[in-house]
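[job 0412] stage=fold_complex status=start
inputs:
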Amino acid sequence: IAGITQAPTSQILAAGRRMTLRCTQDMRHNAMYWYRQDLGLGLRLIHYSNTAGTTGKGEVPDGYSVSRANTDDFPLTLASAVPSQTSVYFCASSDDRDRGPRGYTFGSGTRLTVV
Amino acid sequence: GEDVEQSLFLSVREGDSSVINCTYTDSSSTYLYWYKQEPGAGLQLLTYIFSNMDMKQDQRLTVLLNKKDKHLSLRIADTQTGDSAIYFCAELTGGYQKVTFGTGTKLQVIP
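[job 0412] stage=fold_complex status=done
writing structure:
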């Protein structure tokens, strides 16, 4: 089934530890995104990539880094986790050719708790 | 700049109609969307409307767009318990480059 796979599903992480959230899509979408979802704040864009080899900063990029070595994978790394990074993280993708009517496709999310 | 606002919570009785409202500020929006998020899941695109349309109907869903007031609404007819979810309004702006999401409205359907 075509779509986005995120891993892990959930994680409890000690503050100060490094963590990489994985995201893989099989739709050959050129653009990928990372959002965090917090109660009352909706979805906030962390980083994005319009095409393989390029990345950009979103609304809340501090403390996070991304890479886009190929079309399918877009990992999100927390270099040194802090409790304020406790959130649900969603990866999404879209295709430039039909982004309008199709919008974004989302993964099922990673629930991260930093203690 | 772009800002998308929604009320946080709506409660309706099963069988009634639900209306979820959204306001946005970017007049250059081209597509406007409604996404549904069920508990423990990601967002799924429910429907969209192009900016040159006033209304779009899709089975039990009716989307109304008032560009003058920058107001978007989603009406769900004959609301069912399976409609309980968080509904996000979103807009595509910046020359098809950016989607901005609202804060989400949690719909609770009372049996």
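[job 0412] summary: The radius of gyration of chain B is 13 Å.
[job 0412] exit 0
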